[in-house]
Amino acid sequence: MSARDLAGLIPPGASSAIVPDSIAYELLERLSAAGGPATCAHGHEWSIATARVRVRRRLGRGITLERDCKICRHEACRERVRHTRHAMKGGRLT
What we know:
Number of helices: 3
Largest sheet: 3 strands, antiparallel
Strand order of the largest sheet: 1-2-3
Helix content: 40-55%
């Protein structure tokens, strides 16, 4: 896929869009073939099931690809809820 094709995925008026799985698979393969890391910072392997790929239009940088780990985001959300729940009860987090 070219940058022009990726830019076509972004709806008018928006600065970014999540890439569909069929295209994301190809992009993840190309990123790994180009020597990108095989896992996220916490060791989860990049795949369609674990990665969310986003194409973003950045001023001065053109079209960029971003990927983040769905597992890490879920764990962070659970941790945030856990800390909030303990804070509301006035108890210490153990």
